[in-house]
Amino acid sequence: MTSRVRARPCAAYRFLWIMSKIFGFLCVSTDDFWCHENSSLIHPLGWANAVGQDIYAPKDYHPPDITAKMKTKYSNLHIEEGMKLEAVDPLNLSVICAATIKKVLKYDYVMVRVDCYEEDTDGSDWFCYELTSPSILPCGFCANHGIPLTPPNGYSKESFSWNTYLRETKSKPAPLNFTRQVRFVHMENNYKKYNH
Fold first, then answer.
1. From the CB of residue 117, how many other CB atoms can be counted at a distance below 10 Å?
2. 116, 150 in Cβ contact below 8 A?
3. pLDDT per residue of the chain (196 residues) written in tens, 0 to 9
4. Where in the chain is the domain with CATH 2.30.30.140?
5. What is the DSSP letter of 125?
6. Helix, strand, coil: what percent of the chain each, to 5?
7. CB-CB neighbours of 159 under 10 Å
8. DSSP secondary structure string for all residues of 52-107
């Protein structure tokens, strides 16, 4: 049996300094972490406080109040902790897993945990998503589109069923079937970029 080692994600946000910017990519302190300036991983000062998310920051950090700029688009959705969905595994972007909403934040943000790993008791395996993120999908999305779904830890791909899992965990599916559209780009096998 092989074991899988994975990096520990951070469920709490950190106060970071932008060290350099090259062609829209930012190098943020302290470990030379690079991401695009439009990445959903970075937010403006005051965001964590506005949505109710933990933040690691210097003791003298006093976040600006940006709540006047924040909007809730999906207040009619009844999202609650424990609801199930499908999510792209942030540690392995080629895999979609069964997942659980672990915390509901303000302004359409949720903390999600993919269920295919052993659970970290401190919540460090939770990831933050906006409800419109293309990385979170309704239960059954993979089955409806012929995409393999990685089942929760302890379940096999062959026998996994959303109906059974929801019943066994006494959970409800997250109501993510709203007007958001997920675009697929169809690529042919052996696609050639240039014709010679």
1. 16
2. yes
3. 333 333 334 444 555 555 666 666 656 665 666 665 666 666 777 777 777 777 777 788 787 787 888 777 766 678 899 999 999 988 888 899 999 999 998 888 899 999 988 877 777 788 888 888 888 999 999 999 999 999 999 999 998 999 999 999 999 999 887 544 444 444 444 444 433 3
4. 13-69, 84-168
5. T
6. 10, 25, 65
7. 8
8. T--EE--TT------GGG---S-TTS---TT-EEEEE-TTSTT-EEEEEEEEE-ST
Q: Which CATH architecture has domain 13-69?
A: Roll (2.30)
Cβ neighbours of residue 24 under 8 Å, at least 6 residues apart?
36, 37, 38
3-state secondary structure (DSSP) of residue 191:
coil
Distance CA 116, CA 100 (A): 10
**Cα gap 11→54, rounded to integer Å:** 8
Helix (H, G, I), strand (E, B) or coil at 4: coil
The whole model's pTM is what?
0.72
Structure tokens at 119: 């659970």
Retrieve residue 57's tokens.
Answer: 């920051």
CATH topology of domain 84-168: SH3 type barrels. (2.30.30)
What is the number of alpha carbons within 13 Å of residue 80 lying toward its C-beta? 4
